[in-house]
Amino acid sequence: MGCSSCSTSKDGQPRGCKNNGTCGTDGCNKLTVFDWLSNMSLPNGQKPFDCVEVRFKNSRKEFFRNEEGIPLAIGDIVATQAKSGHDVGMVTLTGELVKVQMKRKKVALDDKTLNKIYRKASQRDIDIWQKCRDKEEEIKKRSREIAIALKLEMKLSDVEFQGDGSKATFYYTAEDRVDFRQLIKDMAKAFNIRIEMRQIGYRQEAQRLGGIGSCGRELCCSTWLTDFRSVSTASARYQQLALNPQKLAGQCGKLKCCLNYELDMYLDALKDFPSQDSKLHTEKGIAFCQKADIFKEMLWFSYKDEPANWHALRKEQVQEILDLNKASKKIQSLEEYAVEFEANDKLVFENVVGQDSLNRFDKQNSRRKRKSNKKRRPNKNRRAAKNG
């Protein structure tokens, strides 16, 4: 991702806008929402919606009420109300689209418990906020050392400071319940701040940290995916994928979220598709399904006594044979229905320049070598004439 201020160096490497997550256009941040109503004015007499969406570190977003009517725009740094003290965040959405986001996240529009926006952040607020963010990596490293010394089976994945620097929230993952009372005491003594521990799942950890997936793109959970739907191995079975945990698991160690993207299409295609557990009764013997191709609408069957010899049948043919078997009728053999595939020698891909062979230069070089060898080879008749 990048914003309009991002640039590249002379060698083509991306340099970014150097704002470290505080980009004014909100184009370098995670889970951004495009404000397509920004260029439209409100009707006469209608007041703008008094709630705004504010983003804090990573993908944490909350809604705040602008009771004082402070003129705010996307990218403004604001000081917001917190349980104790104040926090500093960046405005990511204003206007009527905030209503849509609140409805989508099931937040009441007239909720009076929403925190308030105090003011636009002053330069002193921004300096304290930036100073706290610079200390996060060092404190995260030190807190991990303390947890290892206490032999706690947990992983501290991220640290988030409150805007005024009075409190730090530590996000951790753990398999079982962890007694971290002593850990809080040691960290509060070492860092001289209030500590809050918050357990998150492995998918939420990957969402906060981000990364590059096996497809070569940024993780869906850290860029555009907002909800985590349950993913099971049945999704891989319906799509006829090999149940290999190393290939099906993402960076979070759980099944990839993208296994659900095309699942509905496969389920629609399998509605009128014969079951792979079906058996075909023939005079030659019972045939079992070995393979199915949903896109080609083909199934491959083999006899019980000849498992290596497969016969390709169309799904309509398989359904016809199954109907005959239900009527207590048998076909003679699968060879009568088998589909023969013609060898297709056409190139699937050809370069626009016509360079469709990787060893084309080797062939030309071999021809040149042969010609050069013929030129260098002496003639036997000329030798005989000279000797005579």
Walk me through the structure.
The mean pLDDT is 81. This protein folds into 4 domains: 22-38 and 46-121, no CATH class; 135-204, 2-Layer Sandwich (GMP Synthetase, Chain A, domain 3); 229-271, no CATH class; 274-388, no CATH class. The protein is of the alpha+beta class and 388 residues long. 29% of the residues lie in helices and 19% in strands. It contains 12 helices and 14 strands. The longest helix has 17 residues, at 360-376.
Tally of domains: 4
Distance between the termini: 84 Å
Alpha-beta classification: alpha+beta
Adjacency order of strands in the biggest sheet? 4-3-6-5-7
Strand content: 15-25%
Q: Kindly report the average pLDDT value.
A: 81
How are helices and strands ordered from N to C? EEEEEEHEHHEEHEHHHHHEEEEHHH
Unreliably modeled segments: none
Helix share, percent: 25-40%
Major sheet details = 5 strands, antiparallel
By DSSP, the count of extended strands is 14
Helix count?
A: 12
Using the CA coordinates, give the radius of gyration. 33 Å
What is the overall silhouette? elongated
For this entry, give a set of tags.
single chain, 388 residues, alpha+beta, GMP Synthetase, Chain A, domain 3, 5-stranded antiparallel sheet, 4-stranded antiparallel sheet, 14 strands, 29% helix
